[in-house]
Structure formats: structure tokens, C-alpha cells
TrEMBL record:
Enzyme class: transferase
Name this polypeptide is given: branched-chain-amino-acid transaminase
This protein's GO CC annotations: cytosol
UniProt KW keywords: Amino-acid biosynthesis, Aminotransferase, Branched-chain amino acid biosynthesis, Pyridoxal phosphate, Transferase
Described function: Acts on leucine, isoleucine and valine.
Organism: marine sediment metagenome
EC number: 2.6.1.42
Amino acid sequence: MGLKVYINGKYYEKNNAKISVFDHGLLYGDGVFEGIRSYDRCVFKLKEHIDRLFESAQSIMLEIPLTRRQAIDAIISTLKLNKLEDAYIRVVVTRGEGDLGLDPCKCKGNASVIIITDRIALYPEKLYKEGLEIITVPTVRNLPEAVNPQIKSLNYLNNILAKIEAVNCGYQEAIMLDSMGYVAECTGDNIFIVKRGELYTPPQCMGTLRGITRDTVLAIAAKKDIGKHEHVLTRHEVYISDEVFLTGTAAEIIPVVKVDGRLI
């Protein structure tokens, strides 16, 4: 028996998990998503992820046809059905089936809700011990006034273009700057630096996603009385830092040992 995928209240074998080609999530990236992890059958920060999912949907005027409680129950049921202990969970909500025009009002019926539970390895295990080498790429982060990075939308082309530039140069990850040249985040992760024993990370107003793992690191730092700052960062400050690391649900926490050829 293969993995089952939840689509609109029903479960399908992976090979038969399908949506309409007229779904606006496919046609226009019109939808939102969350990436979540479970460890030893416990879902990490599930409430926070669900809250962010509903906030993203609210921002784009997308009505999720489940309550928060129903969404949580559906995620847990899907994990149990697939008998996964340590898993990566992808929750996707699309605008639903419509016509070939942009108008979301022409989408028929409810939004589509998809829950996929599987495993993920974003980076090779050895990089968690030896550290990543990353570069800065030309593609800048979306302007908050255009597509606000706080919305985890299905349209990730901004990040994908930056990832392509990194891969073309032989790197697995890259720093994206904002329109003013300040450090925003990486293609799929938040970035932290350490200087003189204190943590620094770009603030949300710089075009960074409010990462759940990012917020967890900041909360742990506060508990341990480690200085923490949401601070505008230049590349110079990254280059001269004592440590650099990236955080994200898929990436977890991974060290960086070289940035734009500068040894950290």
C-alpha cells in the first residue's frame, strides 16, 4: 500500500491524487500552503502553522472550507493513515476550479484542500555537519507592496528564479536581497548571523517570511538570555559575522561556512 493523499475530505493513492487542470492553483498559483514537520508522531508547532495558513488565505480573500480544528484533525488523520512518525506535511489550499481567466470570482464551488504527508531531505546529511557554502544572487525579493512575502502563496517563482541562479553557479542555496540591497532571506530559508554572542536576523518589514522555525529560535534565545535582534543586515555584516545559519521547516537548522567566497 502506497502513501495516501487527502483531497477535499477523501483519500487517494499517490498515483491517483489529481485535481482539475482548470484549478486556479495550477493555472495562476492562486492559493496558499504550509510546510509542517512531525517528529516521533508529534506535529511541531501545528497551531502556529494552521494560524499562518488561515492568515495567508485571509489576505488573498480565499475562504478555506474547513475550520482550524477540522484542518488540524485532517492533518493528524492523514499522518495516522500513512503510519508516518517523522514526516514532512504539505497542506495546500487552491482557489479551486474556474475558467481560463484571472477572475477568482469565477471559480466554481469551494476551494480545494490537499494534504500530502511524506519524507523530505532538503540538503545532504553531511552539510549539516560541514556547513553550506552560499552566494548572493541578482534576483531580489518581492516587494511587500507587490506580493507580500508574509503570504505563503503557491506562486514561488521569485524564489525559484533565485534558486536557478544559485544552482547555475554550483550552489544549493542563495541569499536574496531586498530592493534596497539589504539582506532579506534565502530562497527557502530565513537567515541568522551571530556576532559577539548575539543573534541577528532581518525583520519582517525587509521582505522576510515570518518563519515558524525562525520564531522558535528567537523564543529559545529569549529563554536562554541570549541577545536577539531583528535588525536590518547588509552583506558586509554577514561577511564579518562569527556564525551564520539558516532556518526553515524543511531545512530545519543548517550552518553556513562560506558566503560569497568569504569564510565565516
